[in-house]
Amino acid sequence: MCIVLFLVSFLVATAEGGRDAGLVTRVKETTVLYYASSSELNAYWQSVFPNRTIPSSILDHLSAPSGNKMKDMEKEHYWSVYSDRLTEGDAKIFHNWAHRIASEKLLYPETVFTAGSKINLYIDRAVALHSPYLRRDIADSIPMSTKNFTDITAMFAPVSLSMARDMWSTLSSCEHPREVAGEQKACTTSLESMQGFSALALRTSDLRAFSTSLDVPEEGISSPSQRYEVAAVRAITPRAATNTVTCHSMSFPVALFYCHAVNPTRIYEVTLKREDGASIPEPRTLAMVQALAVCHVNTSGFDPTLRYWVKLGLKPGEASVCHFLTRGDVLWAPASAT
Prior knowledge:
Elements: E1 3-5, E2 11-15, E3 18-24, E4 32-34, H1 38-48, H2 56-62, H3 67-73, H4 97-101, E5 118-119, E6 122-123, H5 136-140, H6 149-155, H7 161-175, E7 184-188, H8 191-202, E8 207-210, E9 221-222, E10 228-235, E11 245-249, E12 257-261, E13 265-274, E14 288-296, H9 307-312, E15 321-324, E16 330-334
Antiparallel strand pairs: 1-4, 2-3, 5-10, 6-9, 7-12, 8-16, 10-13, 11-12, 11-16, 13-14, 14-15
């Protein structure tokens, strides 16, 4: 089991009759934080989903570098951040998932997922793909909230300003009100809590988990001037529509997923082939890509000011909203629907 020694320690307070989740902000002796080992996570997965494959977007976190190695990789960019130095402007949200996914270039109508359709392909980059999972008992003891931001940054000290911004953005996203009417959401900090939320939202523990193809690079795909032709489409959820949960890996020193359900949905595996009319292919493009796409069928509660609707000449509720999954996303669906 991997152990990370923190330069600034934290103490988990013990309240009468049980364990208190609050962190005591005192610099004292060095303490340890336990990450979940690969063997523990594999054992848990097999106990819940025997003989079912672990998605690559979960496996990526099992091969995460150690905390010290991660710090060594970026040590030139780190300096200590204290609460009096972190201004309101510094803490602005840069990576709020809801804002990223609202970008019109990431959104598609469901009608494009037919063989022969041509699109400019945009798949967002995966963030924190190799952040390690915490052991559940440790994860549950840490209150992931902007109110505890100083305590949390102290846990991972020294922290760069850019890292602190990402951490604040992630915590703020977790606290943000629901973006869509009827949306269910939660931020999960362990594999067990991600599976637990998905089972609760989908009202079944018999689940299948999916990730997009390894064809999709971590940095995503951007083709503003080159077109891709849809070569093949396969429905992952063959019924008319079903309920699913999508969990997005967020910028954080440990594995933290923004999980939400905006249902009903249809899920497709889409194979795309780049049109090579240009003499020099654009960077961040591939000749052939296979990727998962999620289509939200009921869009009546979506933001009517999105440029997506203006581009289509439609209003919320008059068309589905689809987007491709990043390399770091995990999709959960009832086994009976796949």
